[in-house]
Amino acid sequence: MKRRERTRQLIELGGLIAKAGLIELTDDDRAVMLGALADIATRLRADDREQLILLWRRRGKRMFEHGAID
Predict the structure, then answer these.
(1) Mean pLDDT per segment of 10 residues, for the chain of length 70 residues?
(2) Handedness of CA 1, 13, 47, 57 (dihedral sign)
(3) Which of 16, 23, 25, 26 could form a disulfide with 32 if both were Cys (CB 3.0 to 4.6 A apart)?
(4) Alpha-carbon distance 12 to 5, whole Å?
(5) How far apart are CA 64 and CA 59, in angstroms?
């Protein structure tokens, strides 16, 4: 069952990459996408982590509701 849950999680995370438009915006360049995600991880280690999480959570919720990137 653990394997099935992990597979579902990975599929859902891939869906988020697609929903954000990163596949098209990077011409499906996985090195670019990984670099961008690494940049996010670096930013989350900074002192303004809570502000970033709040901002990104609000933006993400709007995207789930409306399907658009702002």
Answers:
(1) 94 95 96 98 97 96 81
(2) negative
(3) 26
(4) 11
(5) 9
